[in-house]
Amino acid sequence: MNERVADFINRLKKCLADLPPEEIGKAVSYYEEYLNDACDAGKDIDDILARMDPPEKIAEIIKMESNINHAQNNPGLRNFTRVLQNAFRGATRPVSILAVSIYAVISYSLVIMFFAGTFVTLLGAVVSSLTLVYHVFTIRYTAEMIGTIGIAVLCAGVFLLIALGLYLVGRLLVKLSSRTIRLIVKKPENPMPQLNKRASFNYIKAKKAAFAFIALSLAGLILSLVTGLPLKYFIIFNSMKPHNIVMRTESFESKDIKSIFVTTEHSNIRMLYHNDDDIIISYEQPDWLDYNLQRNGNTVNFVERSNGRLPLFELVKIHQSATEVTLLIPKGIELDTVVLESTGGYIYLENVVENVRVKTFTGNIFVQTSEENLKSETGNDFRDKAAVSISANTQAGYITVNGKQIERSSNQKSEYSNNLSAGKSADKLIELTSSRGNIRIN
Amino acid sequence: MDAQLKKGLLDVCVLHVLKKEDAYGYKLTQEITKILYISESALYPVLRRLEDQGLLETYTAEHSGRLRKYYRITAAGIEKLNELILELKELRKVIDLIIMDGE
Q1: I want to staple A304 with a disulfide (CB 3.0 to 4.6 A). Which of A169, A178, A291, A364 is the partner?
Q2: Pick the CATH number of B3-102 from 1.10.3720.10, 3.40.50.620, 3.10.180.10, 1.10.10.10
Q3: Contact call for A191 and B76, based on CB within 8 A
């Protein structure tokens, strides 16, 4: 082979270096074969070489074609990046460089946005379904388990559908942008419409995927609807009204009782005096809460907790609920201890003068201690002992006394302590503790 | 001839020549040069692209001790050629009108 031919081929190889080896091989063998055939045909090789474009220019056209075709057939981010890189190399006139720059910035950021969106929604599909499926193991009721799995499937389906949509738009954008870049940088290669077999194949695949995802979402939706779980969530999260309430009332003779313990996760607790002789505990029970009311010697123990029918991250626990446990106490009986605890419910003490320990996590505490009210109760021996100390403390909430908010101490806690009977020794103590709830004393 | 116009016609020329007979790079260039002037090196990117679009396919055959790559038109290529010819016919009407008006 002639030295100039070897030089031509080497330069071509060098210029094509960043293409796939297969692509370089094809181009090089074409031009080798071409020059050999020209020799065989008796042409002067130098003459032919002179009439050929320089290898650099040939390579540029091949690369541009290869990148754009590649990006159009396989519109991913990397291929699009190659097209843009080459577009800058290919653009020669200042106008086209400017146009390419502006176009590249806009289309590239859009494409990245869509592909990033695809990635994020895919991640969302995985995370949401895994979280829900993990949650299934904490549920004790079959219908709720199936319902939760249904919701997980629905979430995955919808997320996948969104991801597919974003992905397709991203790919379409790459295709259109590649074509536009070709128009900006070069004169149009083929102004007539192109037949693209592979693109239509992709379209069919995308359509199949879309159908699959829609089917998945529908299956999830049906699965969860059948179990009635969405309806239940709807009722609870939208109206916050308890569902299927049954009133439970039990009374205890007050002379037998010395201590009362009430613990709830969800329901409010209200404690007040009444004119009856018995201690009455009445409870509005919704179908997703269980309770246990027991008398043990002179102790009454009431415990309420979620029965697992409302599994969604136990959100319900921290919601204010309209269901309530009411503790009615006859005036003047001697109780040693009353302990009222609620995780998420509110606790109300209405003019109570007893030894009470109140504790909440997120629920608020309301205490009404109207001295006027207490004083008017003449003829009742408890009036003379109407001495109650209140001590309140909350970690993250605030305390209000008679409408005035107590300043936080330096360690971010809010604390309050007062002897309402001013001067008298307090023999009854109300202790209020809350982690996150507010305390209001009037 | 205007480069843009020529590039549009090049695809039709290649498909047209290959419809009659399979050909290798050098021969194809010679055939096309008879119809349309192109540089000696210009055909490869066009062939590569048409192959990518599934309008052409290649095969190798031995010729006097070397391997030669032959290009053959595919069914999709023939379909495409017919489409392009229809468009050219329409184009001819426009051209005829303009030229007649010009004369």
Answers
A1: A291
A2: 1.10.10.10
A3: no
